[in-house]
Amino acid sequence: VYIRKHPLEIPPPSEKDWLKDDEEDFFLQDPDRKRDALPQPFRMINKLVMLVFENAMEIIERREMLREAQKLKVQPTKCFPTAEFQVTGRANCLAVSGKYIFVGLSVGLSAFKVSDCKEVCAWDAVKTEICAIHALDLGNECHVLLAVDEMGLVWLFCFHKESFVLIKILNEVEDISRRSTCVEVVLSPGGDYAGVLLQGNTKAWLEIYRLPKDSWLKEMEKSPGAAAGLACRERRSSWTSVGDIFLLQESPVSANKADAKLSLPVLLLKVKPPKPITGSSFKSPLDALKKVDDDSMLGLGYNHLIKDSQWEQQEAIFRSTYRDYLEAEGERESKEEIPRHATFHFLLPSWILQVGPEMKVQPGVPAGISVHWDGSHNFCLYLLNRPLKEKVDSDLKPDVVWPCAAPIACSAVSSCSRYLALACEDATITIWDKHLGYPLSVTAILEERLIRSIYFL
Question: Of the four listed, 29, 190, 196, 292, which is most buried by Cβ atoms within 10 Å?
């Protein structure tokens, strides 16, 4: 019997036993075409073509997966135009009020019906370009319009029974060097008041007007003939139906007539930006208290006892202490400028804006406005029901002041006019309940963010 002295070992493979590249997929090859292998360089070309094909299939599969995932998402509703209308010149802006669409053109105003997109009236007496429109339905087929032209003039119109009535240009002056331009226009809910933010060469201010809408309706009803023959251009519109698209063409026929005389709006308030806080002129605390008792508003920071010399001394101490930091950041001499932009809202009566018993309050009619200027810490509230004996150009002081810890960046009022949101430059948002008079929530954004606008949804 033969007995092996050493254990059985598997010999290592030799190079001749290695599989060649051409023989790796030998089990996938067709035996009938075994002798038809491609020579070089055709085998390389074949591999490149197969590689391109596999990459293309991967891209197709990836796109198919994305398309299937997109189908599972909620698709937004696609809206296609059902009608179109042509206007004279260029359309810059539009506003919808009731059953009419008011379009601001490069040559004036036009009014179209929402139902059939037909033009019912146009105003082009001055051939001025309208850049912004605000419209509101007053009822009884009457609408109030505020239009701002390219020169910054504010045109007040009343649209009654498909006719434009020019009432007044609110910021028109005889001296062109004193002309002011409109920055923002706001109509109060219900159309009782209008606010216009104006800017001059070196200053800015806010004007609040009371609109006599009830008088307008009575005057329109008394003189229907005059109202029907206002500065309105009649147009014959020929429309052709192509599917669901209507095309309007202008007729050269036009007739301009004189405007009817309606009651003019009343200027109630003229709010100016806060003046820079300077050194105190009071000699004693008793003088400051007398100034407060003299019906001056406490909270704007004017009634203090800090002298100019104290501020200068404090400024010198600050500069000497942080001189290195100021030089590293490239300190610039900057003078405190008067703000030139403000944000304002019309407010209904509430606990924070209480009206005296001698003033009548109507439901749904604003009782005051809220104003905050750029870079200001103070949120100021003004009552609208003021006696007309007060001079409008006098230095108006707010009725309520809310000082904030940081400058107010933006604000918003809810549609129900109950909630007020204040966003400051330190990224803090405060929600107030104006009816109850206390804050509901305070949210601080941790990251260094600058809040530019805020809205209620």
Answer: 196
